[in-house]
């Protein structure tokens, strides 16, 4: 029971910090701040999904988390390339 309580507390902490990071996504002064905030939120959600997969013993959720991380990293690279090209003009 104690281990489950720690994992549930970890999920709540991840979700709370994701909500705090959403401030940067909404009110970020630049596109780079918004991208970093969105990547942070996605990483925290992946951590919460991984914890839930352990709690529920649903191991396919780890596959979903890995795919979400890959999409997040590729999306970050695409936006970084866009920002680099936009800076040259």
Automatic annotation (TrEMBL):
<protein>
    <submittedName>
        <fullName>Multisubunit Na+/H+ antiporter</fullName>
    </submittedName>
</protein>
<keyword id="KW-0813">Transport</keyword>
<feature type="transmembrane region" description="Helical">
    <location>
        <begin position="35"/>
        <end position="54"/>
    </location>
</feature>
<feature type="transmembrane region" description="Helical">
    <location>
        <begin position="60"/>
        <end position="80"/>
    </location>
</feature>
<dbReference type="Pfam" id="PF04066">
    <property type="entry name" value="MrpF_PhaF"/>
</dbReference>
<dbReference type="GO" id="GO:0005886">
    <property type="term" value="C:plasma membrane"/>
</dbReference>
<dbReference type="GO" id="GO:0015385">
    <property type="term" value="F:sodium:proton antiporter activity"/>
</dbReference>
<keyword id="KW-0812">Transmembrane</keyword>
<keyword id="KW-1133">Transmembrane helix</keyword>
<keyword id="KW-1003">Cell membrane</keyword>
<keyword id="KW-0472">Membrane</keyword>
<dbReference type="InterPro" id="IPR007208">
    <property type="entry name" value="MrpF/PhaF-like"/>
</dbReference>
<feature type="transmembrane region" description="Helical">
    <location>
        <begin position="6"/>
        <end position="23"/>
    </location>
</feature>
């Amino acid at each position: 029971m104690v281990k489950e309580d720690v994992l549930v507390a970890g999920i709540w902490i991840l979700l709370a910090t994701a909500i705090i990071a959403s401030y940067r996504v909404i009110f970020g002064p630049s596109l780079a701040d918004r991208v970093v905030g969105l990547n942070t939120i996605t990483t925290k959600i992946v951590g919460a999904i991984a914890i839930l997969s352990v709690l529920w013993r649903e191991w396919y959720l780890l596959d979903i988390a890995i795919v979400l991380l890959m999409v997040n990293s590729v999306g970050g690279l695409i936006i970084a390339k866009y920002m680099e090209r936009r800076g040259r003009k």
